[in-house]
TrEMBL record:
Pfam families: DctP. This is C4-dicarboxylate ABC transporter substrate-binding protein. It comes from the Bacteria. NCBIfam families: TRAP_S1. InterPro entries: DctP_fam (IPR018389), TRAP_DctP_sf (IPR038404). One of its GO terms (biological process) is transmembrane transport. Residues 1-24 form the signal peptide. It comes from Martelella lutilitoris. Keywords: Signal.
Length: 364
C-alpha cells in the first residue's frame, strides 16, 4: 500500500467514526507537533475559537504527530484525513515555489509579529501563491513566526573571525549563505538531530531560535549563545484547510473558521517568539552557558550582509519578492505603533486584511 492509499484508508476509518458523532460538526485538526510545541498551543486556541464563533455548531478534534506529522500534512489534507492542518511550505519547495519566495528572504526578519503579518497578507493576496495552494487542494488561512534566530554553539563566537571553520546547522538557504559569508560550513540536518550532532561534535552549533534550548534540550550541551540577529522562520500556513472540506462549508462557516484562524495565528507567534524565549532566558540564567553580546563590528557586518542578501534575492525573485518586502515594511510600522499585544494586532489584521476577504469565493 503506497502513502496516498494509506492515508485514504485512514481517512475512511476516521470518516466512518465521525458519522456516529453528535450533530455538531467536528473538524479534524493537525498541528503536526506534540503538546509542548507552539503549534499545538495555537491549535488548542484555534479549536476554542471555532466553537465560540460557531456557537458550538462546529468543534475541533486535535490529532497528534503520531497520526499526522509535518511531512505528511499535504497528503493528509488531500485525502481528507484531516480538515485543517499546519503546513510548512518550505517542506514542499517544488510545489510551492512562489510562496517559498518569502522564505528565501528570511534574513529580513527582525520583528516576529511583523513577519507573521506580512506572510499572512502575502499568502492571502498573492495570486500565484493562492494558485499553488488551490492546485494542491489546500486553502491558506494565515501565518506565524519564530523569534529571531541566534547562534547556539559549543565554543564562543564573539567576532566574525570566530565563525571561520565552524560547522553550523542551517535552517535553510538564507542561513547557509550567512554562514558561508563568514567562513563557516552550513550543515543541512533536521532540527530534531541537532542535539546528537552537537553532542558528538559533528557540528559546532546551530543557527536557531533560543527556544530550541528547551524544545530540543540543547541547554544540556550548549556552551555559548551569541545574540546576533540572523533571521526568522515565518513561511508557515498555520491553519490550512483541505479544499474539499472548505467547499463543503457554508459561507458563514468559512467566515467563522477564518476569524478563528485570524486570532489564533497570533498565538503561535506570541508563544514561539515571546513566551518561550522568555522561559529559555530564565533557564539560561541557571546554567553556566555564556550569553554573548557580540563585537559591534560583527553585528554591523552581519546586518550589512543581511541587507545585501535581501536586496540580491529580491532582484532575483522579482515582483513577488518586492511585494513581500513592502509588506514587511508596512507591518513593521504597524507593530511599532500598536505594540506586541496579540489581541490588538489581530484586530488590526482583521480590519486591514480579513475584512476584505469574500468568503463565498476565497480559496475556491
Amino acid at each position: 500500500m503506497n502513502r496516498i492509499e494509506k492515508f485514504a484508508a485512514l481517512a475512511a476509518v476516521v470518516l466512518m467514526a465521525a458519522g456516529t458523532a453528535a450533530s455538531a460538526r467536528e473538524l479534524r485538526l493537525a498541528p503536526g507537533g506534540p503538546p509542548a510545541h507552539p503549534a499545538y498551543y495555537m491549535y488548542e486556541h484555534f479549536a476554542e475559537n471555532i466553537a465560540e464563533n460557531s456557537g458550538g455548531a462546529m468543534t475541533g478534534l486535535i490529532l497528534g504527530p503520531e497520526v499526522v506529522s509535518l511531512p505528511q500534512m499535504k497528503d493528509a489534507l488531500q485525502t481528507g484525513l484531516v480538515d485543517a492542518g499546519n503546513v510548512l511550505p518550505l517542506y514542499f519547495p517544488a510545489d510551492m515555489e512562489v510562496t517559498g519566495i518569502a522564505g528565501d528572504l528570511a534574513l529580513i526578519g527582525r520583528n516576529p509579529h511583523a513577519m507573521a503579518m506580512a506572510m499572512t497578507e502575502y499568502g492571502m493576496t498573492c495570486e500565484p501563491c493562492q494558485e499553488e495552494f488551490k492546485k494542491l487542494g489546500m486553502v491558506f488561512l494565515g501565518a506565524g513566526s519564530s523569534n529571531v534566530y541566534n547562534l547556539i554553539t559549543t565554543r564562543p563566537v564573539r567576532t566574525a573571525d570566530d565563525l571561520k571553520g565552524m560547522r553550523l546547522r542551517t535552517g535553510g538557504a538564507p542561513y547557509s549563505r550567512w554562514a558561508e559569508h563568514f567562513g563557516a560550513t552550513p550543515v543541512n540536518i533536521g532540527v530534531g538531530d541537532t542535539f546528537e550532532a552537537m553532542s558528538q561534535g559533528t557540528i559546532d552549533g546551530t543557527m536557531a531560535s533560543t527556544v530550541d534550548l528547551l524544545s530540543f534540550r540543547l541547554i544540556d550541551i550548549a556552551k555559548d549563545v551569541t545574540i546576533v540577529p540572523i533571521g526568522t522562520y515565518h513561511v508557515t500556513s498555520n491553519f490550512t484547510a483541505g479544499l474539499n472540506t472548505w467547499r463543503s462549508l457554508s459561507t458563514k462557516e468559512r467566515e467563522e473558521i477564518g476569524m478563528a484562524a485570524a486570532r489564533a495565528n497570533f498565538d503561535l507567534t506570541d508563544r514561539w517568539a515571546f513566551q518561550l524565549p522568555s522561559a529559555a532566558k530564565e533557564a539560561l540564567a541557571k546554567t553556566d552557558i555564556e550569553v554573548i553580546e557580540p563585537d559591534p563590528a560583527f553585528l554591523e557586518a552581519s546586518e550589512a550582509f543581511a541587507a545585501q542578501d535581501v536586496k540580491d534575492r529580491t532582484a532575483l525573485s522579482g515582483e513577488e519578492a518586492v511585494y513581500f518586502t513592502e509588506l514587511v515594511e508596512k507591518w513593521t510600522a504597524v507593530v511599532d505603533e500598536v505594540g506586541n499585544d496579540p489581541d490588538a494586532l489581530a484586530k488590526r489584521m482583521i480590519d486591514d486584511v480579513w475584512s476584505k476577504i469574500d468568503f463565498s469565493t476565497y480559496g475556491m
